UniProtKB/TrEMBL annotation:
Signal peptide: none annotated. Keywords: Cell membrane, Membrane, Sugar transport, Symport, Transmembrane, Transmembrane helix, Transport. It is a multi-pass membrane protein. This is Sugar transporter. Gene3D superfamilies: MFS general substrate transporter like domains. The keyword Transmembrane helix applies. One of its GO terms (biological process) is carbohydrate transport. It comes from Secundilactobacillus similis DSM 23365 = JCM 2765.
């Protein structure tokens, strides 16, 4: 590290060296391209597939998401505990191998979700539950290690923000391509149900390939000593340490708000385009422009976080999101206005999404500093637990609300049903964005200044040789 870089790091209250190359950043982004090819099929299209193609009742289809995602949440915690306490760690690293081995099973299980056999309604529901729960478990085995990697790739706070932004760029690219490309593939086939299956096969294959590319191009630069023995007392202490981590708990709760709002919008936008705009082509336009705006926020996030605390950039994103959705509720009556206001809302959401992974990595260091227990996997899986709960809410609420307002698949909808779809698309996310601003302001205390002091204290405790050498050059 030269003197200019050292001075910049010091000014940022960041004394850890930069260890991540451009190739590593691109590789990490590709991992989330693959994750989203695999994961977003369920968030974008599975509810509509259940109601309009398979013929499941709306409330019953929504309950599949509720039960499966609550199951996933506990699976995440179990996976995180297992990862933290692995003792047989190969040269590939602690987290990377999961990207390699989980890809194919994950792709096959995704396809199973969109190939419902011609059973009775009860049989179709059983298939939906089993297929989606197994998919979620396999996704945890792949995604928990992937998200836990940032603390092992770098200890530099700014570099973590950059990695989080690259990851979000990959996520947004995957979501954009899934939104733009899915329905055109469906429309090429003679019927929609077959089209859904073929489109999912295409994206499942691409998702596995992207995960393998990521595996080949990322690197774990730091590693904790392998644990020699695991006992219930250690596990209990680790769980208690998570409950003492106030920044982690705050971040997890606001993610329950923002991620449920984001995923609910993804599920409802298909219904909005079909029944309010009567323009299914709007889904592809929305994918291009709205997710394109998220790329703008991903580009802006590292620039803003160099000048403004990550906490306040996060709150700024929620403010943009809330304003755009409130205006959209009243004004989005045609494709142009719908795409415009939703794109601005996604711009705001992009700030929160890009920063989540950097903030949760900071919470790892805070937890170790506070309790002496370092647990990347358990911290990440605790955080992911709330994201899975948010996905459960995002799948369950639309199904229940659609049933409540009298939604009938494939038919002209009543005024009440159309109002319900509009409210789900805009008001739900606006209210939760405002709640996030309030909670982050009052409860999230891990500012950049405080984080810098915590990292310095931790590195002094560890006697980190690399960082000591950097300090001596200052």
């Amino acid at each position: 590290m030269d003197s200019t870089e050292t001075q910049a790091a010091t000014q940022k209250n960041d004394i850890a060296p930069r260890t991540v190359t451009l190739r590593n950043k691109i590789g990490y982004a590709m991992g989330d391209v693959g994750n989203n090819f695999l994961f977003d099929m369920g968030q974008l299209y599975l509810l509509n597939y259940f109601t309009d193609q398979v013929g499941l009742p709306s409330a019953a289809a929504g309950t599949v998401f509720l039960v499966a995602k609550i199951w996933d949440a506990f699976a995440d915690m179990s996976v995180g505990t297992w990862i933290d306490n692995r003792t047989n760690i190969s040269k590939r690293g602690k987290f990377r191998p999961f990207l390699l081995w989980a890809g194919i099973p994950l792709g096959l299980l995704l396809i199973a979700n969109f190939t419902t056999p011609n059973f009775s309604v009860t049989g179709k529901l059983i298939w939906a539950y089993l297929a989606y729960m197994l998919f979620g478990t396999c996704y945890s085995i792949s995604n928990v290690p992937f998200g836990s990697m940032i603390p092992t790739m770098t200890r530099n706070s700014q570099e973590r923000s950059e990695l989080a932004s690259w990851r979000q760029a990959g996520s947004n690219l995957g979501l954009m391509l899934a939104t733009i490309g899915f329905m055109p593939i469906v429309n090429l086939l003679p019927n929609e149900q077959t089209g859904y299956t073929v489109a999912v096969v295409v994206f499942a294959a691409l998702g596995v390939i992207c995960q393998w590319i990521s595996y080949a191009n990322i690197k774990e630069n730091y590693s904790a000593p392998a644990k020699q023995k695991v006992n219930k007392k250690d596990l209990k202490a680790a769980f208690k340490s998570l409950l003492k981590n106030k920044p982690l708990i705050t971040l997890s709760i606001v993610n329950l708000f923002t991620f449920s709002a984001f995923n609910l919008k993804l599920a409802v936008q298909v219904y909005y385009c079909k029944y309010i705009l009567k323009d299914t082509a709007a889904i592809s336009w929305l994918g291009f422009f709205s997710i394109g705006m998220v790329f703008v926020s991903v580009f802006l996030t590292p620039i803003l976080t160099k000048r403004i605390d990550k906490k306040y950039v996060y709150m700024l994103g929620c403010a943009i999101w809330a304003i755009a959705d409130i205006l959209g509720f009243f004004m989005a009556d045609n494709t142009f206005l719908f795409v415009f206001f939703t794109s601005i809302a996604y711009l705001g959401d992009g700030f929160t999404s890009a920063l989540n992974w950097a903030l949760v990595s900071d919470c790892v260091e805070y937890g170790e500093w506070q309790t002496g227990i370092r647990s990347e996997g358990m911290t990440y899986s605790f955080f992911l637990y709330f994201r899975k709960l948010s996905q459960a809410i995002a799948g369950f609420v639309p199904g229940v609300v659609l049933a409540w307002v009298g939604y009938v698949p494939g038919q002209t909808q009543t005024a009440g049903a159309l109002l319900g779809i509009r409210g789900l698309m805009f008001l739900y996310s606006a209210v939760l964005s405002i709640a996030t601003i309030i909670l982050m302001y009052w409860a999230y205390s891990l500012t950049e200044k405080r984080y810098g002091a915590i990292v310095k204290d931790l590195l002094n405790r560890r006697g980190d040789e690399k960082v000591n050498s950097v300090q001596m050059t200052n």
